[in-house]
Amino acid sequence: MISFLLGTLQLLYRIWFYILVSIPIVILFPVLLILTSSERLYPQFFWVARNIWANIILYGMFFRPKVYREEPLKKNESYMLVANHTSMMDIMMMLKVSRNPFVFVGKQELAKIPLFGFFYKRVCILVDRSSAKSRTLVYKRAQRRLQQGMSICIFPEGGVPDDSSVLLDAFKDGAFKLALTHEIPIVPIAFVDNKKRFSYNFFSGSPGKMRAVVMPFIQTKGLDAKQTDTLRDNIRAQILSVLQKYNCK
Known about the structure:
15% strand, 7 strands, 47% helix
């Protein structure tokens, strides 16, 4: 009986999440339509997403978001934001991490989600990881956005770990190649509570603290492209170290 009640509560909690995601989009639909009509208006769209949409979801789910910073992001500078990926809440927490407008590089499949997907495909850089052509186009679009002064956010695992893994064994190269090409700092970030608080398992989730740890930035100016593998592996090791420190599972 207790198990049934717990499962029912978690189901309702998950449904409540989708309601919170949708309501601000419905209410602000005309505004969002205008702000996503041109890349020039993206900073205004980002402000709405960060300060209204993400906060409604995070606090509406009774999470207590907290960002610990070992180094602050500087205004009007471009960065490559990289983090572990374990939850749908990663998007909202990344918006809490950075006041600087950034563009997500995300999975093409998310564009199929009703309502959310409509704006997702208008503002994000979509990638089909099974297509070499798609990966090339992603690289070009990300370069253009960096040239416009934006930052880029990529979850370099290229997927979501299963319940028995803390972090996937290997990161993808794309984020690190872009950072080296444009000589922008890489910002390693660890989401230490997202999986525990709201994993991809439908019958899971609970209110509570949700922390992000922003590690010291990795400068790429003057580094050679041949150092991509070393850079990638070192950053993965840093993120894994923080997750293990917080006893993430």
